[in-house]
Amino acid sequence: MKKYWLLLALIFPLFASGQSRTIAERVDSVMNLMTLEEKIGQMNQYNGDKKATGPISINTDKEGQIKSGMVGSVLNVKTVFNTRKIQELAMQSRLKIPLLFGLDVIHGYRTIFPIPLAESCSWDMALMELAARIAAKEASASGTHWTFAPMVDIARDPRWGRIMEGAGEDTWYGSKVAAARVKGFQGTGLGNSDAVMACAKHFAAYGAAQGGRDYNTVDLSERELHEVYLPPFKAAVDANVATFMNAFNTLNGIPATGSAMLQRVYLKGKWHFGGFVVSDWESIGEMIPHGYAADKKEAALLAIKAGCDMDMQSRSYIDNLAQLVREGKVEENLINDAVRRILTKKFEMGLFDDPFRFCDPEREKSQWNNRENLYVARDVARKSAVLLKNSGNTLPIISKTNKIALIGPLVKSKFDNLGFWNISWPDDSLRIVSLWDGMANRVGKERLLYAKGCNIEGEDESGFEEAVSVARKADIVIVSVGEKFDMSGEGKCRSNLHLPGVQEKLVMELITTGKPVIVMISAGRPLIFNTIAEHAHAILYTWWLGTEAGNAMADILLGDYNPSGKLTVTFPRAEGQIPLNYNHLNTGRPDGEKAISGVNKIYKSNYLDISSLPLYPFGYGLSYTTFKYGELMLNTHKPAGNDTLEVSIDVTNTGQYQGEEIVQLYIRDIVASVARPVKELKGFSKVMLTPGETKRVKFMLSNEDLKFYDSNLNYIWEEGEFQVMVGPNSADLKSDKVVWCRSSAK
Ligand code: GLC
Fold first, then answer.
1. Domains and CATH numbers, the chain
2. Average pLDDT of the chain, as a whole number
3. pTM
4. Residue whose CA is closest, atom 3 of ligand 1?
5. What is the tens place of the pLDDT at every residue in 427-436?
6. What is the full DSSP assignment across 544-613?
7. Is the CB of 104 under 6 A from ligand 1?
């Protein structure tokens, strides 16, 4: 530590005076010493290596560039050991500017939490923030400075594999989750040794890829962009997110990486974002196949002009920017702005004071097998699972003696519980709790029977006979099916959302035994399982629940935890219904109501061959108990101007288990200058109720909650009639109406 101060003191005389200098002043003093090439070096990011142990296998070209100050950041390097080795290379450069180490700590580093889409079903902001906080503590203890998370893309298409990474289909809710996760990762502020820089990604509208195909074209109105896709990014800025990552897709014909509208006009202009923007993996170079740049030199020019500050792995900047500046095609002040942003974060992270402040082996060890973190992960997992069906109160399993058959390809799977963006370690097989482990931990192996039944993929049914035989010997059957960890995630899009392979057939074979069959579905996205939904006795959607998956599942199955999760994404009946989101417009011929012209169902916005309704709606989830909703109570039916509309409802636990209920508030703007959704989530409250207990849940609405983007992109509210709705999910709502005027004079 001391020797670096001396070195810096020698290079930067003013440091020696001990004057307290602002970060801006310190950045300027460094920049005044930098050559153009060294500045561009800060804008250059290389991939390292994800191996958890052993010397980093960064190739010599990169090592040489690091030593000469031509690299500003390295991603995909883990552990103190490896990050220190590379940072030491950077300390051999002329100016000894420390590197930033970035990594996809999407939902955990050493302790893996449920995938973000699962976590979002907990509707528990504090818990999601805590999960991110723990991930930051573990990652920062192992040399990571920067996570490429939260992914805040709104997604309404389960064919898109990256739906697993976000917070579902609702913009209002996704904005709250974005803020919670940024706060979790960054803690009380950069500079604390357990804070990592967060990164709002992928800017913007990546989730609107046509056909649900990753990297595909996005084309939507500016109004839809502002109404649906930008707000979670703005929420991240308001939560002081340190960095942004731009997106692979074109937006209205312009690659996001080369979009000045997104990066300079909106992000750095209107929103006054002070951090820096990193490209996505080689997305600068991808402007060539996009047909937007002829070569990497033009791609570099387009990207820097658009406001992309750092080049992830494409080498477009390091190979071309200096020449572009010397040719007068790129103004050096664009380079200076980008470098100033990057150096500012390095100073804020304390890396200039001590480049190795995140390389403390003792701290790494303290976070390495942290039992408390595992307990939190188990709690998050319990609260992320969603009970979709429980006919005849099949669940929870109350008997202490009955034989339980655990059947299916995911029963003993460990790694699949970590999901696509897992950070794997050699000892994972010892740490990850499978469903089998979790149940054996609780009831003992002697009560358990097992059969794999089939593989996740493939048409082999040879295991069915054994599975049925095992089921017949049991009192209750739990069948665990779903996706492998890499069937959802980046580049993992599917046109067919049914259970892969012959898993659905296996489930139906087991149901024919007449035993109570509980279906556990683990996946990174909504799947389609209409037949199972009709015939299974109980269905628990367990997404990918992370390191503690099996313990959390056992807690739920055995009644130690009463499931409270609710869906943050709509479950379709068929791929042909997609996009299918709850907050759709009414159309001129809404399905399910008598059309204005009185014609019958055929001439409505629906399908001839299937209902236009989802299998499970947004906000849906069951409990082991039941809840009764009283009548909606409003403090007025004529709010005016800046009045507060109080909306209350009594919720009673009418069952025999204590349980949490997520009470949801929606509105509808009946008539407006642009057609408005049939409902919009504007509030929720998670209440714990003991059997027989009633609580009055109260929401406060203001005209801020009524705002939308009009056809001129003004963010306004308009007076008129509004529906106010409260209920357990987006389809089962108590409703009332108010007329909200500008002034009460009317
Ligand atoms: C990937 C992803 C991005 C990730 C980055 C680094 O392609 O699109 O989300 O952070 O590259 O791994």
1. 102-316 (3.20.20.300), 385-557 (3.40.50.1700), 627-740 (2.60.40.10)
2. 95
3. 0.96
4. 280
5. 999 999 999 9
6. ---TTHHHHHHHHHTTSS------SS-B-SSGGG-S--SS-B--SS-TTS--TT---GGGSSS-SSS-SS
7. yes
